Amino acid sequence: MGFRFPAWTNHIRALLVLGVIGAGVYIFLIINFGFSPRATDVGYQPVQPVPFSHRIHSGELGMDCRYCHNTVEREPHSAVPPTETCMGCHNKIHTESEKLAPVRESWDTGQPIEWVRIHDLPDYSYFNHSAHVLKGVGCASCHGRVDLMEVVYQDQKLSMGWCLECHRNPEPNLRPLDKITEMDWEQESPEQGAQLRAQYNVNPNENCSTCHR
Ligand code: HEC
Ligand code: HEC
Ligand code: HEC
Ligand code: HEC
Ligand code: HEC
Predict the structure, then answer these.
(1) pLDDT range class, residue 54, cuts 50, 70, 90
(2) Per residue in 124-146, pLDDT tens?
(3) Is the C-beta atom of 139 inside 6 A of ligand 4?
(4) Which residues have C-beta atoms less than 6 Å from ligand 5?
(5) Torsion (CA) 84, 89, 90, 94 in degrees, nearest 10
(6) Among 55, 51, 44, 45, which residue's Cα sits nearest to residue 148?
(7) Which residues of 95-124 are buried (b: 16+ CB within 10 A; e: fewer)?
């Protein structure tokens, strides 16, 4: 009888094969996505079909973000509002405005306005708005001072390193739940972050499957 590997080594061989496949996939992803400009598009600011201004609506008129982005506390995605939301006011305000012509056309035809997407993670990663917002991470931490933006742009890198930095140390970015959309809110002291962390039981994950599922 020759030498035989014990049965349990079968698992190791399976693992090795998986490891080799995994490394291949990893290299493929790095080459295809890691260096793509989309991955670090800070400042990306496409031209929109309507010159909608967050500075006017959120800043000057003081509208809460959730008036328009009303799924942000319930769902992974933060919906961009339908034409109906705009028409609630613009059937009375600026009814002749040239800038609002595409909004009226959308209302008449039933064709949604084709807003150009600004923030867009690669499909192989998973993000969830409600998971953040309900644990005290505010819009401003990830989107910057939207209330001052005439045209929205991408404020943060949205890279994996950026996500992990906060998952490792969320405290500086926590705020009371009733301040989630308050754009100029700041922590009173570093202790407040620790206190909120305990209060809301905040323990972000660093497992790959949290964001790659
Ligand atoms: C009156 C409605 C309205 C209000 C209020 C509003 N938004 Fe928006 N938001 C929009 C519309 C319409 C778009 C799509 C057009 C654009 O990008 O400007 C948008 C786009 C965005 C985007 C970019 C989405 C993408 O494509 O990646 C972000 C981020 C955003 N809003 C955040 C906020 C925040 C934060 C607030 C509160 C300070 C806010 N919004 C208040 C209507 C609104
Ligand atoms: C709660 C009411 C309200 C809602 C909802 C609202 N707006 Fe407005 N919007 C205003 C007011 C008020 C002004 C005028 C501000 C000013 O003149 O200073 C305005 C101004 C504008 C202007 C500039 C018009 C011009 O001729 O100068 C545009 C464009 C516009 N809004 C687009 C939109 C779009 C698109 C939506 C939906 C995503 C929307 N608004 C939702 C109240 C609203
Ligand atoms: C922890 C970071 C973070 C917070 C907090 C956050 N966002 Fe986002 N937001 C993102 C990322 C990342 C994307 C891109 C998501 C994707 O591509 O799947 C995004 C996308 C969006 C979009 C485009 C539609 C979508 O869901 O892809 C809107 C609108 C938006 N955010 C609004 C808001 C508003 C309003 C708040 C506060 C109530 C908020 N966000 C809080 C990170 C954040
Ligand atoms: C500013 C801080 C911050 C940033 C930036 C951030 N996160 Fe988070 N994330 C958190 C916190 C806090 C939680 C909630 C942890 C808890 O529930 O205890 C969370 C939770 C999550 C969850 C839910 C996990 C679950 O258990 O269901 C996902 C998914 C997630 N983050 C993905 C991302 C991705 C992807 C990015 C980058 C695009 C990102 N996060 C950026 C702070 C952040
Ligand atoms: C908190 C969320 C989060 C966690 C946890 C996470 N990733 Fe990612 N990962 C992302 C996001 C978001 C991207 C897309 C980044 C971009 O577009 O630049 C990404 C991109 C990647 C890429 C593409 C190349 C690159 O670096 O951009 C690989 C490979 C990857 N992740 C592997 C992993 C592995 C392996 C783990 C576990 C050790 C892991 N990720 C954990 C959010 C996460």
Answers:
(1) very high
(2) 999 999 999 999 999 999 999 99
(3) no
(4) 26, 29-30, 33-34, 39, 121-122, 125, 159-160, 163-164, 167, 206, 208, 210-212
(5) -170
(6) 55
(7) eeeeebebbbebbeeeeebeeeebbeeeee
Which band of pLDDT confidence, cut at 50, 70 and 90, is reported for residue 35? very low
Distance CA 96, CA 119 (A): 32
Counting atoms of ligand 4 from 1, which one is nearest the CA of 174? Answer: 12
Burial class of residue 78 in the structure, from the number of CB atoms within 10 Å of its CB (0-12 exposed, 13-18 middle, 19+ buried): buried
Pocket of ligand 3 (CB under 6 A): 65, 69, 72, 77-78, 80, 119-121, 127, 129, 132-133, 137, 139, 141-143, 158, 180-181
Q: Over the stretch 155-199, which tens digit does the pLDDT of each residue have?
A: 999 999 999 999 999 999 999 999 999 999 999 998 999 999 999
Task: Give the side-chain half-sphere CA count within 13 A for 120.
Answer: 11
Please check whether residue 126 is in contact with residue 211, taking contact to mean a CB–CB distance below 8 angstroms.
yes
Closest approach atom of ligand 1 to CA 147: 38
CA–centroid distance, 129 to ligand 3, in Å, is 6
- Mean pLDDT in the chain? 89
Alpha carbon distance 76, 165 (integer Å): 21
φ, ψ for residue 195 (rounded to 5)? -65, -40
CA neighbor of 161 nearest in space, from 3, 40, 43: 40
